[in-house]
């Protein structure tokens, strides 16, 4: 059997290539200075030339992001369960969390640097701070929206609140949690890079700031591109993970019998 | 087995206290199939929650098996209009859920899992779902889901089955099919049933006794014994006596609505 590629399969590649082609054409047509906006060919050339620093710093950004995100997942799930468990805690903690989330994390980075010094720890903490909120909210929502009738069914059997949580609450939180993980991982990236641009010895953010101060615009853009690729990869990994773990949430109606 | 005496339930609503039930008295014998019919919003579902102890009456007494109800009764199986199966569990695992919760089954669950599986399969076979045990609920039609829901309500051999319009969302043919499934299960297992429904034909076909409720605040305004011989066949729905019964009940409900 021959695999047929549909328009839908080709579309992501076609659009990406198209974007680069238009970008390149615009740079050449309007003779845009490399210092203002480097053409994709310049960026790829910079990537080829500086592949090692890019790779090395990408790895630093990747691990600080993952470390911060891992803490966010553990902390977020735990707090989400506490918040979803009781209406009183939910009511009490929600405004605090909203307020906390409203603080721009960029503003917190200098404080973290003051506390922990320049290095990877502020990046890890920023990644954590920025990505834990959606995880808490989604886990809590998943628990809080258990169908009341289902709860009645279980309570009429003599189920305790813990039973209901274990048998229904936690499993049904799965899709909410994995949805939050997809969003969270990209946010964690933002956090780590923001922190790196403000104060760090390594990482893509740090590399871009340095390249910028040396007027190496193609390298700055190469850094951006590297971040975009990493972000897409991480998202794809978590999306695949989600599909595996909570396949039931992606049910299609096509399987339903009449 | 079930006795509600002069039960009143008032709860705080958005615009002041709402009286859902006012002085309701209802008695159901062991093994009886009782149906409760009435206009919508008359507190039928509240009645179910009172009997199962999920809510407490404002005044009056609720007793099950001679003992006053002070908390969830722990012996009732329930099924609602929405099948409410867990989408991450197969049909078999859904049906076995009560066994993971109700003592003494829960203590033996991991040890006797195979035996419990056989028990669940036997029940699924009775309702004609034997071949679908490994399917997920969302792969099945509404009627099949409702069959599974009935199995889940009965797997732990409850003395009492509470049904809140379980067939209301199904098409007419599936509904009649499931009436027969329920009739057969009831005749086989001999549990007590309280069926809350809008469907007078459903009540007439299945029940021993039909209680008619008034509009809110609800109370029982009429109790009718249904004495068509058992086992009943669907053909009974087309006899003149049956039509007469449904017609009279219809009149009662109309009165109850008028009074509101």
From TrEMBL, chain B:
Residues 2-240 form the ABC transporter domain. The keyword Aminoacyl-tRNA synthetase does not apply. The keyword Lipoprotein does not apply. It comes from the Bacteria. InterPro entries: AAA+_ATPase, ABC_transporter-like_ATP-bd, ABC_transporter-like_CS, ABC_transporter_ATP-bind, P-loop_NTPase. Keywords: ATP-binding, Nucleotide-binding, Transport. GO terms for molecular function: ATP binding; ATP hydrolysis activity. PANTHER family: ALIPHATIC SULFONATES IMPORT ATP-BINDING PROTEIN SSUB, TAURINE IMPORT ATP-BINDING PROTEIN-RELATED. Belongs to the ABC transporter superfamily. This is ABC transporter ATP-binding protein.
């Amino acid at each position: 059997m021959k695999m047929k590629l549909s328009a839908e399969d080709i579309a992501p590649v076609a659009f990406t290539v198209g974007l680069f082609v238009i970008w390149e054409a615009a740079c050449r047509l309007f003779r845009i200075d490399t210092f203002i906006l480097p053409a994709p060919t310049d960026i790829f050339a910079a990537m080829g030339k500086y592949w090692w620093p890019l790779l090395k710093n990408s790895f630093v950004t990747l691990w600080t992001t993952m470390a911060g995100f891992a803490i966010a997942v553990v902390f977020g799930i735990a707090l989400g369960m506490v918040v979803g468990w009781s209406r009183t805690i939910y009511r009490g903690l929600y405004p605090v969390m909203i307020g906390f989330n409203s603080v721009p994390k960029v503003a917190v980075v200098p404080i973290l640097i003051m506390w922990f010094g320049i290095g990877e720890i502020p990046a890890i903490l920023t990644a954590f701070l920025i990505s834990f909120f959606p995880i808490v909210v989604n886990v809590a929502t998943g628990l809080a929206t258990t169908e009341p009738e289902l709860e009645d069914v279980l309570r009429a059997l003599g189920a305790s609140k813990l039973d209901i949580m274990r048998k229904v609450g936690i499993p049904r939180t799965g899709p909410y949690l994995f949805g939050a993980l997809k969003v969270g991982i990209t946010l964690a990236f933002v956090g780590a890079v923001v922190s790196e641009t403000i104060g760090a010895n390594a990482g893509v953010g740090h590399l871009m700031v340095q390249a910028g101060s040396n007027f190496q615009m193609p390298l700055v853009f190469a850094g951006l591109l590297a971040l975009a690729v990493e972000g897409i990869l991480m998202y794809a990994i978590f999306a695949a993970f989600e599909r595996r773990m909570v396949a039931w949430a992606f049910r299609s109606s096509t399987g339903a019998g009449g | 087995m079930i006795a509600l005496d002069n039960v009143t339930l008032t709860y705080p609503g958005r615009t002041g206290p709402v009286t859902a039930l006012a002085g309701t008295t209802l008695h159901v014998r062991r093994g009886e199939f009782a149906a409760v019919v009435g206009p919508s919003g008359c507190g039928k579902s509240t009645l179910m929650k009172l009997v199962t102890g999920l809510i407490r009456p404002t005044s009056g007494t609720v007793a099950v098996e001679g003992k006053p109800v002070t908390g969830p009764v722990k012996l009732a199986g329930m099924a609602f209009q929405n099948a409410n199966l867990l989408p991450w569990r197969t049909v078999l695992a859904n049906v076995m859920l009560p066994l993971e919760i109700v003592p003494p089954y829960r203590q033996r669950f991991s040890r006797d899992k195979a035996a419990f599986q056989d028990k669940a399969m036997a029940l699924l076979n009775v309702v004609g779902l034997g071949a679908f045990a490994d399917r997920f609920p969302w792969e099945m039609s509404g009627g099949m889901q409702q069959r599974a829901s009935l199995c889940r309500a009965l797997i732990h051999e409850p003395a009492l089955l509470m049904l809140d319009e379980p067939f209301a969302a199904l098409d007419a043919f599936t509904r009649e099919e499931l009436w027969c499934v329920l009739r057969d299960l009831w005749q086989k297992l001999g549990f007590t049933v309280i069926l809350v429904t809008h469907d007078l034909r459903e009540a007439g076909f299945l029940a021993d006794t039909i209680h008619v409720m008034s509009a809110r605040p609800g109370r029982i305004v009429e109790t009718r014994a249904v004495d068509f011989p058992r086992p009943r066949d669907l053909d009974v729905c087309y006899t003149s006596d049956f039509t007469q019964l449904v017609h009279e009940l219809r009149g009662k409900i109309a009165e109850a609505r008028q009074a509101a």
